[in-house]
Design goal:
The complex is a heterodimer. The longest helix of chain A is centred in the last third of the chain and has 20 residues. In chain A, strands 7-6-5-8-9 form a five-stranded parallel sheet. In chain A, helix 2 packs across helix 11 and helix 3 packs across helix 4. Helix content of chain A is 37%, strand content 14%. Chain A contains eleven helices and nine strands. By secondary structure, chain B is an alpha/beta fold. Helix content of chain B is 27%, strand content 28%. In chain B, the strands form two sheets. Chain B has a five-stranded parallel sheet. In chain B, strands 1-8-7 form a three-stranded antiparallel sheet. In chain B, strand 2, helix 2 and strand 3 form a beta-alpha-beta unit. The relative contact order of chain B is 0.20. Classes of the chains: A alpha/beta, B alpha/beta. Chains A and B meet through helix 1 and helix 11 of A and helix 4 of B.
């Protein structure tokens, strides 16, 4: 019998085996059907409580987790940083212990600092799911990206994947690099030199290449994954101006022509149209950005199910 | 002789030909009770109910020159023991591609025991619409004394009174090397 994922917490992709990743993806595939029903709800997690503890703003991820919990009949509670006791001086661990005392079954946490979900997992009895921690990992984003790729390419093994943009600060890039290389893809990353350190190649054992130019990464790629330029970083002088960035690193139709004819384009959102991605690319049939959002709910349903009940 | 799970083989209660005859009889009874194959929707419960349902569909098609709709239900997400099993139940897909509204549904499973699987399947069916009628066909009924819910089968291949310490194994060529039904005993 397949045993896909027997952990209580989902803290990152780095520690998962290829079999565990495939197991989560297979479970998510089967949750997709529920989202297509007229009544999009199953009683699986009735009586369970999921707390979405978000120390960073997020509409897409938080809504996706909330919908996932509700479609499994769990009670979902959202806590955002503006209303959190942390603003009153409470430590992170105290916040976690107080939430834990209310007997939730799962805490979904997003935080600007790397390692926060790991810290909470040590003190909480609830299952901890990492919804993004600093520049470290964003495991459910990588899983939904993988689901989108599998849906359109059939497999991940053997694919050439280009990841473009701010690699240095991107938890999406890190989780994706771990996941894609574990499942047998070859990953090439490119972007401004200030945002793509050369020693990044050491992040994984093999199949990761840092390319000097975005064109080198895109050439012959099956999948082109664009990262959001975090405009708040523009003040840090990682690149001169957004216009410069768009000219040298933005994904345009001309650059995309270097990829394979059937290449697909992914973006974790929210997009900066005309900066990291041209509108004509974002709106083309090769862009699967809305599919990523759609599959996100199924992936998060699978993760909540495995962490709180079926795991 | 003990199997890989330590279960002790007791007796064979059906061989391939008896299974075939039982399924033929079930198909005939279903057609007779429902006045033909019109509006029939045969729904197999994963896992072993699915090939049995497929065979019933084929037999009805031979009898009636009309092939009823065929669907698959996976009850994992409707189980009432998720927190107690802890066995990492694998979720498979439910495939009800035709509208069940107004249809005469025949749920098909290999063994009827406590009735909880059927309860879960009924709950799920109702989430898909409002069928005209739902009936239950099983290859083996282990007897009413084991029932934990008020659920009975309308069509039964064979009734086999069993003890709680016994297990019925339905072997099908789709999953096993043979076609047969066995009683096993759990070790004390």
């Amino acid at each position: 019998m397949e045993k896909p994922f027997r952990r209580r917490d989902l803290l990152g992709i780095r520690d998962l085996s290829a079999a565990e990743i495939t197991g989560i993806l297979n479970t998510a595939e089967n949750f997709r059907e529920i989202n297509q029903r007229e009544i999009k709800k199953v009683p699986t997690l009735r009586g369970k409580t999921v707390i979405n503890l978000f120390f960073e703003n997020s509409t897409r991820t938080r809504t996706s987790f909330e919908l996932a919990a509700k479609r499994l009949s769990a009670d979902a509670v959202n806590i955002s940083v503006s209303s959190s006791s942390v603003t009153k001086g409470e430590t992170l661990v105290d916040t976690a212990l107080n939430l834990d005392a209310m007997q939730p079954d799962c805490i979904v946490v997003r935080h600007g600092s790397a390692g926060v979900p790991h810290q909470l997992a040590k003190v909480s009895r609830a299952a901890i799911v990492n919804a993004g921690d600093g520049a470290n990992e964003h495991p459910t984003q990588a899983l939904l990206d993988a689901m989108t790729i599998r849906e359109h390419k059939g497999t991940i093994e053997g694919l050439e994947v280009a990841i473009l943009g701010d690699i240095l600060h991107s938890r999406v890039a890190r989780s994706n690099i771990h996941l894609l290389t574990k499942l047998g893809a070859r990953v090439r990353v490119a972007g401004p030199k200030t945002l793509v350190p050369r020693d990044f190649e050491h992040l994984v054992e093999k199949d990761l290449t840092v390319c000097p130019h975005v064109e080198d990464a895109i050439r012959g790629a099956d999948v082109v994954m664009i990262l959001r330029i975090q405009r708040e970083r523009q003040d840090s002088a990682y690149f001169p101006t957004l216009r410069e960035y768009s000219i040298h690193y933005g994904l345009t139709n001309e650059r995309l022509d270097l990829a394979r004819k059937d290449a697909i384009v992914l973006h974790p959102g929210p997009m900066n149209r005309g900066i990291e991605i041209a509108s004509e690319v974002a709106d083309s049939s090769r862009s699967l950005i809305l599919d990523q959002v759609k599959y996100g709910v199924a992936v998060r349903m699978a993760v909540l199910y495995l962490a709180t009940g079926g795991g | 002789m003990a199997d890989q799970y330590g279960l002790i083989e007791k007796s064979k209660i059906m061989d391939s030909s008896r299974m075939t005859r039982a399924l033929s009889r079930l198909a005939s009874e279903i057609v007779e009770d429902n006045h033909g194959a019109r509006d029939l929707y045969i729904v197999g419960i994963r896992r072993r109910g699915v090939p049995l349902a497929q065979r019933i569909v084929e037999k009805i098609a031979e009898l009636e020159n009309e092939t009823p709709h065929f669907g698959i239900i996976d009850i994992t997400l409707y189980r009432d023991d998720l927190s107690t099993v802890g066995a990492n139940p694998i979720v498979n897909r439910t495939e009800l591609t035709h509208d069940i509204e107004g249809k005469n549904i025949i749920l098909v499973d290999d063994v009827l025991y406590t009735g909880r699987t059927i309860r879960a399947a009924l709950d799920q069916l109702m989430d898909f619409g409002r069928p005209n009628r739902v009936q239950l066909a099983v290859l083996i009924d282990r007897g009413k004394e084991h029932r934990e819910l008020p659920i009975q089968a309308d069509y039964i291949g064979k009734t086999v009174p069993t003890k709680r310490t016994e297990i019925i194994k339905v072997m099908l060529k789709e999953y096993d090397d043979e076609e047969s039904v066995w009683i096993y005993e759990k070790p004390a």
